[in-house]
Write a structure and sequence with these properties.
seven-stranded mixed beta sheet; globular; alpha+beta
Length: about 450
C-alpha cells in the first residue's frame, strides 16, 4: 500500500533512536464502549453503515467533482447515538488549507460542527438522536478538488486518481471514536463494510475505472453517466482520464479490467495484468475465493508513487512487485479489514508474505528479525511509526513477511494455510484484531506459539 515503500534490501537503514511518543487521543476519549456487533467474533464496532448513495458530476478535466452523498446507517450500539463523525481523508496531505480538497456543505439530518484532526474529521450532530437499533440518515453536498500530485488522491496531467475521496463514517469501537490523524507514509484507514451506489457524470472522453461493477452507461450531449454498484465493500475509489484498456479473466472467472496511461506500453500493461491474475489465482487457492465478479487495475508511471489498493480496484506502477502486492491486499484489508493506524501489520505483513510467496522469499529473511532500536516492534502502530519512518518498512513489511515465512517453516505449509483460511472465513467482510489472527494460526497446530510471537515482538492486542 502507499508510495514507493515496498520492501527491498536497499530500504534497510539504521534509524536513529527517537523518544517514545504517546498514542493519539480521540476527541471523544470518554465515550463508553459500544455494545453489540455485526458478529460475535469481533469487538463491538459501529455505527454500521447500510448504504452510501453518491451522485457526482465532473468538470471537463475530471479533476473537480460536485454532487450529493447520502449515508444510511444503523446505531448498532447499546446507547443513544447523537453524533457521528465523517472522515474526509482527502484533506489529509494538506491539512486545513484555505480551499480544502474535500468540502461538505448543506448537511441534512444533522448539524455539522467544526472540522477537526487536520480537517479530516467532521462531526455531525444528528437532528434526531438514534436509539439503539434505530436507523438514521445523513446527507450532504460534496465538492472534490483533486490536488496536482502523484498520489493515491492526486492528479498527473489529464489523469485523476480519487482514492479516499468519498467521506466515510468513522468507527466507534470499544475504545471510543477512532479519529487518528492522516499519515503520509502509510494508512490510517478504518471502515466498515457497506453497499455503495454511485453515479458519475463525466465527459465522454474520460473513462472512470472504479470499485464495483458498472450497471449502465448513458450518453447525452458529449457526457456519460456511469452507474456503478459495489456491494459489501469498505471503501469506494475511482480514477478519471483518457485511459487505454485491456481485459481478461482469471482462471477462477474474475473479470480483470486493466487501464493504463500512454506512457505505459500495451505490452507492459498486459504483463501487469498477467501478474495481477497470477496473484489473485494464488490467493484464492491459498486462502479462499474472491467474492466479487470484477477487479480493475489502473497503471501509471506515478513518478515516485508505487501503488495503493482499494476494494476491487488497485493503483500500481507498471512493475510486478507493486502489482502483486496490491492484488494480494484484496484479501488482507479489502476482505478482512483492520484498524490500519493501530495495527498496520495485520494487513501489510500478511500481504507482503503473500507477495513474497509468489515472487520468492527475500534473502534478508535469513537475518531477520532486524531490530534497529529497543522500541521497534512488528506490532507497533502508526503513532509509533509515523515518527520512525526508517523503521516502518523494515519492521512491518520486512520482519512481518519473514515472521510468517518462519512460522510456515515451523508449523508446516498445510498448517499455516489452514489457519489463514480459517481466519478469512471467520473475519470476511468484518474487522479483525491481532488476537483473532493469532488464534486462527494457533488453532491449526498443536505447537504452542507463545514464544514465537514473543521472538517477533508481536504480542499486543
Amino acid at each position: 500500500m502507499r508510495h514507493a515503500r515496498l520492501f527491498s534490501a536497499a530500504t534497510i537503514v539504521v534509524a536513529a533512536a527517537i523518544p517514545a511518543v504517546p498514542a493519539y487521543a480521540t476527541p471523544d476519549a470518554a465515550t463508553a464502549p459500544v455494545a453489540g456487533s455485526a458478529s460475535a467474533t469481533y469487538p463491538a464496532t459501529g455505527p454500521q453503515p447500510v448504504a452510501y448513495q453518491v451522485r457526482l458530476s465532473a468538470d471537463d478535466t475530471g479533476a473537480t467533482w460536485r454532487g450529493h452523498q447520502r449515508v444510511a446507517f444503523v446505531n448498532n450500539g447499546s446507547d443513544t447515538l447523537d453524533t457521528v463523525w465523517l472522515r474526509l481523508w482527502g484533506n489529509g496531505p494538506d491539512g486545513c488549507t484555505a480551499t480544502p480538497a474535500i468540502a461538505v456543505s448543506a448537511v441534512e439530518g444533522g448539524k455539522a460542527g467544526p472540522l477537526a484532526v487536520g480537517c479530516t474529521a467532521l462531526p455531525v450532530r444528528l437532528s434526531r438522536p438514534a436509539a439503539p437499533g434505530a436507523p438514521a440518515v445523513v446527507a450532504f453536498d460534496l465538492t472534490i478538488r483533486v490536488p496536482e500530485r502523484a498520489d493515491r488522491f492526486g492528479r498527473v496531467g489529464p489523469y485523476s486518481f480519487l482514492g479516499n475521496a468519498l467521506p466515510l463514517l468513522a468507527v466507534r469501537d470499544e475504545r471510543g471514536w477512532q479519529l487518528p490523524p492522516y499519515v503520509a507514509n502509510a494508512e490510517s484507514f478504518y471502515s466498515l463494510t457497506s453497499n455503495f451506489a454511485v453515479s458519475l457524470n463525466h465527459p465522454d472522453a474520460l473513462s472512470v475505472p472504479a470499485t464495483g461493477t458498472v450497471l449502465a452507461e448513458k450518453r447525452n450531449g458529449g457526457r456519460t453517466t456511469t452507474t456503478i454498484t459495489a456491494p459489501l465493500v469498505r471503501d469506494f475509489a475511482w480514477a478519471a482520464g483518457p485511459f487505454r484498456r485491456a481485459e481478461t479473466r482469471t482462471a477462477t472467472g474474475v473479470r480483470l479490467r486493466t487501464w493504463y496511461t500512454p506512457d505505459v506500453t500495451a505490452e507492459a500493461a498486459v504483463e501487469v495484468q498477467g501478474q495481477v491474475a497470477r496473484a489473485m489465482e494464488f490467493a484464492a487457492g491459498e486462502y479462499g475465493p474472491y467474492p466479487y465478479p470484477e477487479m480493475d487495475t489502473v497503471i501509471g508511471g506515478f513518478d515516485g508513487f508505487s501503488g495503493m489498493e482499494y476494494p476491487t480496484l488497485i493503483l500500481t506502477e507498471p512493475a510486478t512487485l507493486p502489482a502483486v502486492h496490491e492484488a494480494a491486499h484484496q484479501w488482507w484489508y479489502a476482505l478482512v479489514g483492520n484498524d490500519e493506524y493501530a495495527h498496520p501489520w495485520l494487513d501489510e505483513s500478511l500481504t507482503h508474505y503473500t507477495t513474497t510467496k509468489l515472487l520468492g522469499i527475500p534473502d534478508y529473511c535469513a537475518g531477520a528479525p532486524f531490530w534497529f532500536s529497543d522500541t521497534m516492534r512488528v506490532d507497533a502502530g502508526m503513532d509509533y511509526y509515523d515518527l520512525r519512518r526508517d523503521e516502518y518498512v523494515p519492521a512491518v513489511y520486512g520482519d512481518g513477511a519473514c515472521m510468517f515465512h518462519e512460522l510456515e517453516a515451523l508449523i508446516g505449509g498445510d498448517a499455516i494455510r489452514t489457519g489463514l483460511r480459517r481466519y478469512l472465513a471467520a473475519q470476511q467482510f468484518g474487522v479483525a484484531r491481532p488476537a483473532e489472527l493469532r488464534a486462527a494460526l494457533q488453532s491449526a497446530t498443536t505447537m504452542d506459539l507463545g514464544d514465537f510471537w514473543i521472538r517477533w515482538r508481536n504480542t499486543a492486542g
